[in-house]
Design a protein that fits this description.
- This protein is of the alpha+beta class.
- About 40% of the residues lie in helices and about 15% in strands.
- It is built from 19 helices and 14 strands.
- The chain has helices spanning about 85-100, 130-140, 170-180, 215-225, 240-245, 275-285, 295-305, 305-325, 340-350, 360-370, 375-380, 395-410, 420-430, 445-450, 450-455, 460, 465-470, 495-500, 505-560; strands spanning about 10-20, 25-30, 35-40, 50, 55-65, 65-75, 80-85, 145, 165, 190, 200, 230-235, 260-265, 330-335.
- The strands form 3 sheets. The chain has a 7-stranded antiparallel β-sheet with strand order 4-3-2-1-7-6-5, with helices on one face.
- Strand 12, helix 5 and strand 13 form a beta-alpha-beta unit.
- Helix 3 (about 170-180) packs across helix 4.
- It is globular, with a radius of gyration of 28 Å.
């Protein structure tokens, strides 16, 4: 298919662009295969807007006489308005945008056509491979092995080719366990706690069914993570009622009679359409400028967004507490193990592991616990909060995770090497990007699409020194301790940087942030001067003592 076939009107003049808090600008609108490009006519202050078609969630058309208006609602929650003279031109442009923003084929998306204009110093596709993670693990324990059982994705299509499993469990046993878990997602290592040797594993639900089916290899696998005389915890991210209902469909949960050393705890985390509806309600409330305080608070509460944040953080804190304070190993799963499970395991690592609070450590966490672990980004991020299409598999699972990280960052502003802008960047690129990192639903699909060969990795761009500086937290001081976030309702706040950034002017916030950076730089300069003066003073005191000693010796010599 040629993109030209979908573009009925490639260019329109005398178009007026409207954006909140910016003056209206007149200029030329151009459509390409992947971008909507607006260029102003002003000689004194030329302005350009480049918008990926894949970033467009929905469009609305309005007409007043011969003047047409297109309202574009984006996946990053922006809303822009284009006034286009001529009804036919407006209709043509609207239909072209609709067609180009809903392409079915992944290979027609922009990452396959994007050519970087920067020098590539690091291949992001090879930055965080499983064998590199295993090398770090091997330096502290020899109880685990890197299994190639999923080579060619023959056992589990949503797992990577290499997985970390207990050394005492062979591949034949793993195959039997895979047949006992939904989607063949057998328990694999998620995190090793160096402090006490406890671990966190993740998987999908066991297929016990109504007959109470069991798998001795599965029992042996998860028991292999226990220390002698110790108990473990299974955190099921479904309510007990939902878990029991799953048995009628062939699923279920670990029964105490077969797993006597494990205590099962149910922590209900919502999924799919409930989360998507929550996002839609929240964005609608944030965009409504007409309501009073009572109505705003009522709509915010009705969205249940902060309730979902609280549920996820509570489950993650529980997992971290079991590992760090109870000295117990943990297995986390829901139904498929690709959504709420990953929210819990990744947030627990943010709490427990200082490395995950650095920029590269956090990138590694996203790759390991989301991309390699099989979170279906292509399905979950197909639509954002504005789409009029019928929901299928869309859900803001990754956005909720990022929001939870922001909540912890806000409570511990000095413990993270990255800033809020880094989290917003990941949100934007998960929904629409020139990079191939978040394309596909799992490593198997990315392999078939040959993304590492045909597209650029987001990490190749982000990890360049000139870009990294934008995402560094000026308040960062390395903190090797476990950090325990508060999940009390009064401790959780609306993430204004995402949900209100297009609804309010950012000038004063930007100025305040700039002033904070200047103060911190000045403070560091003064601290360096203080340290230099202290060294100088110490040297002078040393010289004085030496001079005194020399004077005393001379006096002593003269006396005798």
């Amino acid at each position: 298919m040629e993109f030209a076939e979908l573009i009925k009107t490639p260019r329109a003049d005398n178009v007026v662009l409207h954006r909140p808090f910016y003056p209206a600008v007149e200029g030329t609108l151009c459509l390409t295969g992947h971008h909507l490009i607006f260029s102003s006519r002003r000689q004194d202050n030329a302005e350009e807007l480049w918008l990926l078609h894949s970033d467009i969630d929905s469009i609305e058309k309005r007409f007043v006489g011969s003047l047409g208006t297109i309202i574009i609602k984006c996946k990053d929650l922006r809303i822009i308005q284009l006034d286009i003279p001529g009804m036919e031109e407006c209709l043509n442009i609207a239909s072209s945008i609709e067609a180009l923003s809903t392409l079915d084929s992944v290979t027609l998306m922009y990452p396959f056509f994007y050519r970087p204009m920067f020098e590539i110093s690091e291949d992001g596709w090879r930055s965080f491979l499983p064998d590199q993670e295993f090398e770090l693990l091997s330096s502290v324990t020899d109880e685990w092995r890197l299994s190639c059982i999923n080579k060619e994705f023959s056992v589990c299509s949503s797992y990577p080719p290499l997985v970390i499993v207990p050394k005492s469990i062979d591949d034949e046993a793993l195959r039997k366990v895979a047949m006992f878990r939904q989607g063949s997602r057998f328990p694999v290592l998620s995190y090793y706690h160096k402090k006490n040797g406890m671990v966190m594993m993740r998987s999908s639900q066991p297929l016990t069914g109504t007959n109470g089916r069991r798998c001795k290899e599965d029992e042996k696998l998860i028991n292999a993570t226990l220390r002698p005389g110790k108990r473990g915890y299974i955190i099921d991210t479904r309510s007990l009622n939902v878990a029991q209902q799953a048995r009628a469909k062939g699923g279920g949960f670990e029964q105490e009679v077969h797993y006597p050393q494990w205590r099962r705890i149910h922590k209900c985390i919502e999924r799919f359409n409930i989360l998507q509806e929550s996002l839609i309600k929240l964005v609608e409330a944030c965009n409504d400028q007409s309501h009073n305080m009572d109505r705003w608070l009522s709509k915010l509460e009705a969205s249940n967004w902060l309730t979902h944040i609280k549920e996820i953080l509570t489950a993650a804190c529980l997992a971290a507490q079991c590992i760090d304070r109870e000295g117990a190993s943990v297995l986390v799963h829901g139904t498929e193990g690709t959504d709420s499970t990953l929210q819990v395991t990744s947030l627990a690592q943010i709490i427990l592991d200082p490395r995950c609070r650095t920029i590269r450590g956090f990138e590694s966490l996203v790759v390991r616990e989301w991309l390699q672990a099989g979170h279906p980004f292509q399905q979950r991020c197909a639509q954002s909060a504005y789409s009029n299409s019928k929901q299928k598999w869309e859900a803001p699972v990754f956005l909720l995770f990022l929001d939870c990280v922001w909540q912890i960052l806000r409570q511990f502003p000095c413990s993270f090497e990255f800033n809020e802008q880094f989290l917003i960047l990941l949100f934007e690129h998960a929904y629409a990007s020139q990079f191939g990192t978040f394309l596909g639903n799992n490593e198997h699909e990315r392999s078939k699409l040959k993304l590492p060969q045909k597209t650029m990795s987001l990490w190749s761009w982000v990890n360049r020194s000139e870009e990294l500086s934008k995402f560094q937290n000026p308040l960062f001081e390395a903190n090797s301790l476990v950090i325990w976030p508060s999940v009390a309702p009064q401790s959780l706040q609306l993430w204004e940087g995402v949900f209100l950034r297009w609804n309010r002017p950012s000038k004063f916030l930007d100025e305040a942030h700039e002033e904070m950076i200047n103060i911190i730089k000045y403070n560091k300069t003064l601290q360096a001067k203080v340290n230099a003066l202290r060294r100088q003073l110490a040297e002078m005191e040393t010289d004085d003592r030496m001079q005194e000693n020399l004077s005393w010796r001379l006096k002593f010599t003269c006396t005798y």
